[in-house]
């Protein structure tokens, strides 16, 4: 019995060590443990290792919730503290990785006084020339003043450094974005099945969602990220899509879905192997997230030269309809694509962009197409 207890303790401690860097906040990822008083000059961190578990460079401030910059109140996304990155400043942390695995990084950010703020998120070292994400944060979709963002990467080595860098140069070095709650999650590559020719059609595999974050996670366009955080899918638009969870939003099926938050600038696609001349049925759910997004919505689906528009009248309280597109494959690789026809804003006077939810996307070949509608 004693040996069994020892083995159990060792097993549990091993599991904890593995989970600590593959699914959840990084050590001190919420910056709640701050520098010593001797490592601060006002709010500026003066030591490169002053923030526990992190290394910093450049003009980095340790910000307390409610702190003011002139007449502007600085918003901390979660908890009591965050960091602000000034001109060319960065924060980084070493992490253990599983070589060859895919990961997503989720973090929260708030814009301060600069209008064109961007963050460069990377993991080094890497064997790829362009394995980093440039995250534009000038478009804010929520009404809280901050957003959570996700980007993806492939681990080329067993250890790496997550680097978040403000590459902007402003007249005021303190005019930089606030960063909070940095998390890491390992992504399990989804597979096509006999029940669905699409990978991850229910969007259950995706970036880490903070348990207490009620604003979802923005997934930036594919052009900004060599390895996306939503396995199987490509965000091939100018604007981001929003990854939402059933704890804080209405989700048609399962625990995760996608909200198309920027009209025709917010598009999602997947390339699937097909047989030329064969008939396929693409089915999917279109709804709203129960987030005060009201009005007439339309999702357009494209495949094999065909398209369908699925209208949905949203009352902003959750619900969905099913859409269907039957098409004949014109090539051995068919691009499945979804976008929202219209721009929609929440009716809560926040001016926040929102849009239709898509979920439960399935693609199947039709054996006897003339017998079924």
Give the ordered list of helices and strands. HEEEEEEEEEEEEEEEEEEEEEEEEEEEE
Distance between the termini: 64 Å
Average residue-wise pLDDT? 87
The CATH class designation of the largest domain is Mainly Beta
Instruction: Bin the strand percentage.
Output: 35-45%
Subcellular location: Secreted, Cell wall
Domain DUF642: 24-185, 196-363
Pfam family, one: DUF642
InterPro entries: DGR2-like_dom, Galactose-bd-like_sf, Pectin_Meth_Modulator
Structure in words:
With 373 residues, the protein is mostly beta strands. It folds into two domains: 24-187, Jelly Rolls (Sandwich); 217-365, Jelly Rolls, CATH 2.60.120.260. The chain is 6% helix and 43% strand. The protein is built from one helix and 28 strands. The protein has one helix at 2-22; strands at 23-25, 40-41, 44-45, 55-57, 60-64, 68-69, 72-73, 81-85, 90-96, 102-110, 118-124, 132-136, 146-154, 159-166, 178-187, 217-219, 234-235, 241-245, 256-259, 267-273, 279-288, 294-303, 306-315, 319-328, 333-340, 344-345, 353-354, 357-365. Strands 1, 5, 8, 10, 13 and 15 form a six-stranded antiparallel sheet that branches. The longest helix has 21 residues, at 2-22. The radius of gyration is 22 Å and the shape is globular. The termini are far apart.
């Amino acid at each position: 019995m004693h040996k069994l207890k020892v083995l159990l303790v060792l097993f549990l401690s091993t599991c904890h060590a593995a989970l600590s860097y593959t699914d959840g906040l990084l050590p001190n990822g919420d910056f709640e443990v701050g520098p010593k008083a001797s490592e601060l000059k006002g709010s500026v961190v003066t030591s490169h290792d002053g923030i526990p578990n992190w290394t910093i460079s450049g003009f980095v401030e340790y910000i307390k919730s409610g702190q003011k910059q002139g007449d502007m109140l600085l918003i901390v996304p979660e908890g009591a503290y965050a960091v602000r990155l000034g001109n060319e400043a960065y924060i980084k942390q070493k992490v253990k990785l599983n070589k060859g695995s895919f990961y997503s990084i989720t973090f929260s950010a708030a814009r301060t006084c600069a209008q064109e703020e961007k963050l460069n998120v990377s993991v080094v070292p890497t064997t790829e020339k362009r394995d980093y994400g440039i995250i534009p944060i000038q478009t804010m979709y929520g009404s809280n003043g901050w957003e959570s963002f996700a980007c993806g990467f492939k681990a080329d080595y067993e250890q790496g450094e997550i680097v978040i860098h403000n590459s902007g140069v402003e007249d005021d070095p303190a005019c930089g974005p606030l960063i909070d709650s940095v998390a890491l999650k390992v992504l399990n590559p989804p597979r096509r099945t006999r029940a669905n020719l699409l990978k991850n059609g229910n969007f259950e595999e995706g970036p880490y969602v903070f348990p207490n974050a009620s604003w979802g996670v923005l997934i930036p366009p594919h052009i900004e990220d060599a390895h996306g955080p939503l396995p199987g899918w490509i965000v091939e638009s100018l604007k981001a899509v929003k990854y939402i969870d059933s704890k804080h939003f209405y989700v048609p099926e399962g625990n995760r879905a996608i909200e198309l938050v920027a009209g025709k600038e917010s598009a999602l696609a997947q390339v699937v192997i097909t047989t030329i001349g064969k008939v396929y049925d693409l089915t999917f759910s279109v709804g709203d997230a129960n987030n005060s997004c009201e009005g007439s919505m339309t999702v357009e689906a494209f495949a094999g030269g065909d398209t369908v528009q699925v209208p949905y009248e949203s009352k902003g309280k959750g619900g969905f309809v099913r859409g269907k597109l039957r098409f004949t494959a014109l090539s051995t690789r068919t691009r499945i694509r979804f976008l929202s026809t219209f721009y929609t804003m929440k009716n809560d006077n926040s001016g926040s962009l929102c849009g239709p939810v898509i979920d439960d996307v399935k693609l199947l070949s039709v054996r006897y197409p003339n017998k079924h509608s």
